[in-house]
Design goal:
This protein has 265 residues and is an alpha/beta fold. The strands form 2 sheets. Strands 3-2-1-4-6-7-9 form a 7-stranded parallel beta sheet, with helices on both faces. Strands 5-8 form a two-stranded parallel ribbon. It has a single domain, classed as Rossmann fold (3-Layer(aba) Sandwich), CATH 3.40.50.720. Helix 4 links the parallel strand 6 and strand 7. This is SDR family oxidoreductase. It comes from Spirosoma rhododendri. One of its GO terms (molecular function) is oxidoreductase activity.
C-alpha cells in the first residue's frame, strides 16, 4: 500500500530534497510551500502534489490540512518550514523576533495540531520536525533562532507522551550546517557594536564541513521508516562532533571552546 507524506517548506533545501527522495521511493508526496506557482521541478513528478501553505497563516494551515486529508490517507507529517534569524538581540526588531517564533516554532505546533485529530482517530501516524543542532547547543548571535529550535525540543519531548497514548510518533531531525541553506534563507540583523562578533561567527560557519540537503533527506527517510520510537536524530558530521563535545565537557567548557574557536577568525 502506497504511503503518503505531507511536507512543509518544500520549495528549497531539506524539504525539496525530501520530497524528491520520498517520491523516488514510491511514496505519494504532498509538498507545500508559500509560492507553489513558482515551483517547476516538483510539479513535474507524477506522485507529487504541490499545495500552498504559509505556516504563519493559521487559517491557511487548517484549509490546506483539510484539503490534503480529503485526498486520502496521510502517514507522515514532516514539519520542515523555517529559516534562521541571525544577529545580536539588540539589533533585532520586535517584528523580526515574532516572525521567527511564528515560523519556526508556532508554525510547527499549529500544523501538528491540525493533523493530531486525524492520527488519533486512526491510532497511527508520525510527525517529523526539522530541528537543529542549534536546538541542542547555543551559538553566538543567533539567540532567537536557537530559542525557536530549543522550544521545539521541549515541545516534542513533552508531546511524545500524549501522542504515544494513541500510537502516534514524533521525531526531530537535528542537522548541523546544511550547504543549500547557509545564507540563502537567513535574515541577518546588524548592529555596529556587534559587527566583529557577527563577522567572526559568519566566517566560522562558512566552512566545507557541511551536509547536503540530500544527506539530511536520507535521515528524514530513515526516521520515517525505521519503525523505532527514537526521539532525536543528530545528523551531519559537524553536529555529531560538536554535540559529543558538549556532552563530554559540559556547558561551561563547551562555551569556552566556542569562544576560543571564534578567536581564530
Amino acid at each position: 500500500m502506497t504511503k503518503t507524506i505531507f511536507i512543509t517548506g518544500a520549495s528549497t533545501g531539506i524539504g525539496k530534497a525530501s520530497a524528491k527522495l520520498f517520491a523516488g521511493k514510491g511514496w505519494k508526496v504532498i509538498a507545500t510551500m508559500r509560492k507553489p506557482e513558482a515551483e517547476t521541478e516538483l510539479t513535474q513528478l507524477e506522485n507529487v502534489i504541490v499545495l500552498p501553505l504559509d505556516v504563519t497563516n493559521r487559517q491557511q494551515i487548517d484549509e490546506t490540512a483539510r484539503q490534503a486529508l480529503a485526498m486520502g490517507d496521510i502517514d507522515v507529517v514532516f514539519n520542515n518550514a523555517g529559516y534562521a534569524l541571525l544577529g545580536a538581540l539588540e539589533a533585532i526588531t520586535d517584528d523580526q523576533l515574532v516572525r521567527q517564533m511564528e515560523t519556526n516554532f508556532l508554525g510547527v505546533v499549529r500544523v501538528t495540531q491540525a493533523f493530531i485529530p486525524y492520527f488519533r482517530e486512526k491510532k497511527a501516524g508520525l510527525f517529523i520536525t526539522t530541528g537543529s543542532s542549534a536546538g541542542l547547543m547555543g551559538f553566538p548571535v543567533s539567540s532567537m533562532y536557537d530559542a525557536s529550535k530549543w522550544a521545539l525540543e521541549g515541545w516534542s519531548e513533552s508531546l511524545s507522551f500524549e501522542l504515544n497514548e494513541f500510537g502516534i510518533g514524533i521525531k526531530t531531525i537535528e542537522p548541523g550546517l546544511v550547504a543549500t541553506e547557509i545564507g540563502a534563507k537567513s535574515v541577518i540583523a546588524t548592529h555596529p557594536a556587534y559587527e566583529t562578533l557577527l563577522g567572526k561567527f559568519q566566517a566560522a560557519i562558512s566552512t566545507d564541513n557541511v551536509s547536503s540537503a540530500e544527506q539530511i533527506a536520507q535521515v528524514v527517510y530513515e526516521a520515517a521508516t525505521d519503525g523505532t520510537n527514537t526521539l532525536r536524530y543528530v545528523c551531519g558530521d559537524d553536529a555529531k562532533v560538536l554535540y559529543a563535545q558538549r556532552l563530554a565537557v559540559g556547558d561551561e567548557a563547551f562555551r569556552e571552546g566556542i569562544r576560543q574557536m571564534l578567536t581564530t577568525f
